[in-house]
Automatic annotation (TrEMBL):
Pfam families: tRNA_edit
The YbaK/aminoacyl-tRNA synthetase-associated domain, residue ranges: 57-162
Name this polypeptide is given: YbaK/EbsC family protein
InterPro entries named among the record's database cross-references: YbaK/aa-tRNA-synt-asso_dom_sf, YbaK/aa-tRNA-synth-assoc-dom
Amino acid sequence: MRAPIGNFDEAHPATERLDLLPAPVAAAVTAEMLYVDTDPEKADTAVFVETYGADLLDASANCVVVAGKRGQDVTLAACLVLSTTRVDVNGVVRRHLGARKASFAAMDAATGATGMEYGGITPVGLPADWPLLIDAAVVDAPYLVIGSGARRGKLIVPGKVLAALPGAVVLEGLGS
């Protein structure tokens, strides 16, 4: 099967590649999601785009874990924005979470809570009680490349499918 975006050797329905996905991601992928094998050494956006296709610069989204704090309470959430933008952690995220302070979660906290590898965190298969904040531009994309939960491999997913994930809240201006 050929991927709808990028220059990948082959694409497979993600539901047929469960053995290559971390357990929480494998339990959550759907028939609309494709899996493509990629070199983990080429996972960072600039190198990834150079290797797998210039069209992916505008068709990639990054998922980051943030921690919102109010007093002793800490809320972990995931944010999904186009790879050409940055998450507005101190504005949109902080206000949405009702936090006094928001910051990127520590690597060990993010990987421990998600069961995913750092650099491959995906919005697919997140803990059920987490908010998933998605920039509105992500939802409008016909297809996006996102993490697979591991540094090796990516998922290709329609933007509208991402908006339907558990806990998803679409926000204008999340990515700036």
